[in-house]
Structure formats: structure tokens, C-alpha cells
């Protein structure tokens, strides 16, 4: 037999071989791949010529594979399965049938705000998909998204690299959080009380937030920062343990913490400008069907949430 090379094989014929292996019938295999019975027979003859083997022989039980066809069948089935699941599926994304894990960069605050409604939506429309949240330092977010190690970054990434796409989801305002046992501060807090109270500041970088600082500096307010932490979750527990401590946090986070019953929220002593929460993604995956679908779901879920008017 003459030497054969892969370029001599019409790879579309492997689709027909795979159908024949499963259906054991020329008629049924032809119907599955959308060919006439005559065209299917012609394609089967081409396969027989290429492999120099009958491949499928007629028996009372149907078209049974030869020993050579059985030997090749395992490999060809694996190849076709991989092509369907890993290549062809990338051309579109069907949330109802897709099986994949979406990885999203977010802080612990992001988990409290974003995950509950997002998980609820995903379980309804993409029941076979799973979610994994990861906390990534700001300076590593671009590389993480570029490498495909995460699909999106959600939150207030004020120093996001210019190379990332971004889309605003909603605006957040701020509230001041105090202990329910703090008797010196009522339903409002004066500037003097605010400046006097020891404060907790949450900062992912270990430094005070530029947004907080610039706003307070405009009013000439000096904060007495007692603790700086990168974690939001510890704040209500610290305030509960030390009732004189206060913290200024995003509104929705304050609402979540207030439900614990250990802290309450009040307006800060001066109006603070809202900040935007956005989703960020890398240009490499801008046209990826699954990424597009996820971004649309996130936008739909959080569009205008929590209904704070943007007059800009």
C-alpha cells in the first residue's frame, strides 16, 4: 500500500466514521450527519480505500465494525469528543447545556455584594456551570485576566490598567457604621464626633483610600485612623468588640453588616461622592462567546443596582 499522510485524508470523513461506529447503519448514520444514503455510501467507500479495509461489514445485526475499525474507533471517538467539547463549543455558548467554571476576581466585599444575586441567576440559566471567586492583588489583575486564569474582575479597580476593557455596573454611596452599643452617637454624627472617634479603614493596598482621602480633605476633616485592614469582613466584629470604633463603608456593605444586629449605619458627616463598581476583562477574551455571555449576565443583574441616580 502506498504511503499515506494526514493531508490525504478528508477529516470530514472521520465524522462519518464516528456516526457509523455508533449507529451501525448506513441509513441512520447518513440521517445523523445530514447526507443522503448514496452520499454516505460513497464516503464510506473513500474511507475503505484510505484505510485499505472494509471497516464495516453487513451482518444480520447491522453494519458491524471490523477489527481494524474497532481498534481505530477508540482514538477517533476521543478525537471527535475533544473537537466537540473543546473546539466547536467555543464557536457559541449555550448556558443551558454548558459545563464550565467561571472564575471571577473580587474582594471579600465583592463576594458579599456580587455573589448572592449572581449565583442565583447562574443556577437558573446555567445550571451545569460553577463559579470560583479569587482575590488577586491589584497589580496582578491584568496578568491574571490575560492568562485566562480569571474571566472577569468585579469591583472598584480605580487603578485598572488602560489595556483592560471595563464597563460600569452601578454607583455606590458611603455610610458610616457604628456599634449598636455606642450611646454617644445617635442617628447622625457631627463633624466633631467623626474626627474624635477612632476609625477603621479598609484598604487593599495597605494605604488609606484615595477616594476617601480626597473627599475628606476637601472638607478639611482629619480622621483618627486606628486600624487599616485589607478585609471588610472583620470590620463589624471589631466594632462590636470595641463600640467606640467607627468605619465608613459602601452603602450595600453597610446594609449587609447592619443585618447582623451588632452595628447600625448612619450618614457620614459630609456628603461623599459615589464611586463606580465595574466589570473588567482582557482584550484577548473580548470576543469569546462564554465571556460575552457572562458579561451580559453580570450587566443585566447589576444594571443600576442599587438604583442610585447618576446625575453626571
Q: What topology does this entry show?
A:
Layout lengths: L11 H12 L2 H8 L3 H15 L4 E4 L2 E4 L1 H21 L13 E5 L2 H18 L4 E5 L6 H6 L5 E4 L9 E8 L1 E6 L11 H6 L1 E5 L7 H9 L5 E6 L5 H7 L4 E5 H8 L4 E4 L8 E7 L7 H14 L10
Parallel strand pairs: 3-4, 3-5, 8-9, 8-10
Antiparallel strand pairs: 1-2, 5-12, 6-12, 7-10, 7-11
GO molecular function, one term: DNA-binding transcription factor activity
Pfam family, one: LysR_substrate
Protein name: Transcriptional regulator, LysR family
What would your notes on this structure say?
The chain is α/β, with parallel strands linked by helices and 312 residues long. The chain has 3 domains: 6-91, Winged helix-like DNA-binding domain superfamily/Winged helix DNA-binding domain (Arc Repressor Mutant, subunit A, Orthogonal Bundle), CATH 1.10.10; 101-171 and 275-302, Periplasmic binding protein-like II (D-Maltodextrin-Binding Protein, domain 2, 3-Layer(aba) Sandwich); 174-266, 3-Layer(aba) Sandwich (D-Maltodextrin-Binding Protein, domain 2). It has 11 helices and 12 strands. The chain has helices at 12-23, 26-33, 37-51, 67-87, 108-125, 141-146, 191-196, 210-218, 235-241, 251-258, 289-302, and strands at residues 56-59, 62-65, 101-105, 130-134, 152-155, 165-172, 174-179, 198-202, 224-229, 246-250, 263-266, 275-281. The strands form 3 sheets. It has a 5-stranded mixed sheet with strand order 4-3-5-12-6. β1 and β2 form a beta hairpin. Mean pLDDT is 85; it is low at 308-312.
Amino acid at each position: 500500500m502506498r504511503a499515506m499522510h494526514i493531508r490525504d485524508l478528508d477529516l470530514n470523513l472521520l465524522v462519518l466514521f464516528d456516526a457509523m461506529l455508533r449507529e451501525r447503519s448506513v441509513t441512520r448514520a447518513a440521517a445523523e450527519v445530514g447526507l443522503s444514503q448514496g452520499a454516505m455510501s460513497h464516503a464510506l467507500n473513500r474511507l475503505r480505500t484510505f484505510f485499505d479495509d472494509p471497516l464495516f461489514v453487513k451482518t444480520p445485526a447491522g453494519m458491524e465494525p471490523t477489527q481494524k475499525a474497532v481498534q481505530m474507533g477508540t482514538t477517533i471517538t476521543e478525537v471527535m469528543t475533544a473537537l466537540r467539547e473543546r473546539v466547536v463549543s467555543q464557536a457559541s455558548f449555550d448556558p443551558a447545556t454548558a459545563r464550565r467554571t467561571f472564575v471571577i476576581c473580587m474582594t471579600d466585599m465583592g463576594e458579599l455584594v456580587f455573589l448572592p444575586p449572581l449565583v442565583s441567576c447562574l443556577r437558573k440559566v446555567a445550571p451545569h456551570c460553577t463559579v470560583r471567586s479569587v482575590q488577586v492583588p491589584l497589580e496582578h489583575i491584568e496578568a491574571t485576566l490575560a492568562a485566562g486564569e480569571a474571566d472577569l474582575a468585579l469591583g472598584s479597580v480605580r487603578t485598572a490598567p488602560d489595556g483592560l476593557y471595563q464597563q460600569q455596573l452601578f454607583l455606590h454611596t458611603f455610610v458610616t457604621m457604628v456599634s449598636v452599643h455606642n450611646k454617644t452617637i445617635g442617628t447622625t454624627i457631627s463633624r466633631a464626633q467623626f474626627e474624635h472617634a477612632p476609625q477603621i479603614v479598609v484598604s487593599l493596598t495597605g494605604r488609606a483610600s484615595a477616594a476617601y482621602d480626597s473627599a475628606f480633605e476637601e472638607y478639611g476633616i482629619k480622621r483618627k485612623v486606628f486600624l487599616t485592614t485589607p478585609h471588610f469582613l472583620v470590620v463589624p466584629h471589631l466594632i462590636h468588640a470595641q463600640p467606640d470604633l467607627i468605619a465608613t463603608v459602601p452603602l450595600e456593605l453597610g446594609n449587609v453588616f447592619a443585618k447582623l444586629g451588632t452595628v447600625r449605619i448612619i450618614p457620614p458627616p459630609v456628603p461623599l461622592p459615589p464611586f463606580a463598581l465595574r466589570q473588567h476583562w482582557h482584550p484577548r477574551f473580548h470576543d469569546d462567546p462564554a465571556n460575552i455571555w457572562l458579561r451580559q449576565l453580570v450587566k443585566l443583574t447589576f444594571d443600576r443596582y442599587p438604583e442610585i441616580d447618576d446625575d453626571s
